[in-house]
Amino acid sequence: MELNDVLRLVRKNIQNLAPYSTARDEYKGALGVFLDANENPFENRYNRYPDPRQLELKGIISGLKGVPVENMFLGNGSDEAIDLCYRVFCTPGKDNAVAIAPSYGMYRVAADINDVEFREVQLGADYSLPVKELLQACDENTKLMFICSPNNPTGNSFPVDEMVGLINSFNGVVVVDEAYIDFAAQPSLLTLLQEHKNLIVLQTLSKAYGLAGLRLGLAFADAEIMSIFAKVKYPYNINLAGMERAKELLARDVEAEIELLKNERLRVSEALEGFACVQKVYPSDANFLLVMVNDARGLYEALINKQVIVRDRSRVKGCEGTLRITIGKPEENDKMLAVVKEWK
Ligand SMILES: *Cc1c(COP(=O)(O)O)cnc(C)c1O
């Protein structure tokens, strides 16, 4: 799609929105006597409002991801970016969104909160991408299509050419959620942003980067779309303490942790496959395994009895009989494996 066609998808009231102008937008110098924002002048490190554009932290992330700062949005977790997709593109009570199922629960919750019809299309055999069915589920009011790759909770990635096919065929915005991309064997779609103006890529610092507690989610798209997100978000959506800690912690090397977790994923997967109660371990490009077992609920409770907490997905359509097990430290994984090994 051409950028202008994408911009026409933006809700009329958002196109016309005059954003809140913060005190720090008006004067950008670093030095001076700041009597503009009604702050308490006595220094305690946090007495000043943070940068509403988050340029310093975005600069660091830009270096990590190879994406310019103007193509980036920083949110209070990916959940803020998901919510903003609806608020920017979908008129409540009129527009709809299409998504794969089973997938991440927040796409539906955010649709419901925004009074946007949510249309789910079940994955195909072996959790394949239902390309034709997704396109058939769309009509003239479909503004968003959510694809999660690697997908939560199934763990698999979808072929890049199939996702590109959807981006080319759909006359709306395709949101590809790459929360687990750092654990995947295949590359991110970030390199496709330049030629596909209707693509929004979501990533997060919550998973591979190990910063779930700081709540920092990322969206990447064309600069004009990102500037619309910037004017709709709360002005100071990212707090100063979180940005400072992120800057410190992003300086460390997470590659070794990611490598260890990927090796553990293989070790745990092979061990599980040898146990009597395990019917299937689904291939995973993420930091968790979806495992089909005999009496999933019973095993879930047996694990809790040993203080091992996993996610019971057995009542999710398409995931019957499964548990979703996060890859932890080796000794944590061993504790889990010991319980599963003895299960009937
Ligand atoms: C964990 C997860 C996220 C991350 O959410 P945050 O709000 O950034 O912590 C996003 N998408 C999917 C599919 C996830 O599983």
Percent of residues in helices comes to 25-40%
CATH third-level topology of the largest domain: Aspartate Aminotransferase, domain 2
Number of strands: 11
Order of secondary-structure elements: HHHHEHEHEHEHEEEHHHEEHEEH
* 3D shape: globular
What characterizes the major β-sheet?
A: 7 strands, mixed
In the predicted model, the low-confidence regions spanning at least 5 consecutive residues are none
Could you describe the 3D structure shown?
The N and C termini lie far apart (54 Å). Helix 6 links the parallel strand 2 and strand 3. It is built from 13 helices and 11 strands. The chain is 35% helix and 16% strand. It is globular and about 70 Å long. It has 2 domains: 221 residues, 3-Layer(aba) Sandwich (Aspartate Aminotransferase, domain 2), CATH 3.40.640; 88 residues, Aspartate Aminotransferase, domain 1 (Alpha-Beta Complex), CATH 3.90.1150.10. The mean pLDDT is 96. It has a 7-stranded mixed sheet with strand order 1-7-6-5-4-2-3, with helices on both faces. Helix 5 packs across helix 6 and helix 11 runs parallel beside helix 13. It is α/β, with parallel strands linked by helices. The structure holds pyridoxal-5'-phosphate. Pyridoxal-5'-phosphate binds next to helix 5.
